[in-house]
Amino acid sequence: MNAADTGFICLCATFVFLMTPALALFYGGLVRARNILSTSIHSYASLGLISVLWAIFGYSLAFGPDHGGIIGDLTYCFLRGVGGDVAPAAANLPHTVFMAFQCMFAALTVALISGSYAERIRFSVMLTFSGVWMALVYCPMAHWVWGGGWMGQMGALDFAGGAVVHMSSGAAALACAQALGPRLDLGAPATPNNLPLTLLGGGLLWFGWFGFNAGSALASGALAGHALVTTHMATASGILGWMLVEWRRTGKPTTLGAVSGALAGLVAVTPAAGFVEIIPAMLIGFVGGMLCYGGVLLKGRFGYDDALDVVGIHGLGGTWGALATGLFACASVNGVDGLFYGNPHQAWVQLVSIVVTWGYCYTVTRLILAALKAVMELRVLPDAEFSGLDLSEHNERGYSL
Question: What is the pTM of this model?
Answer without folding.
Answer: 0.97
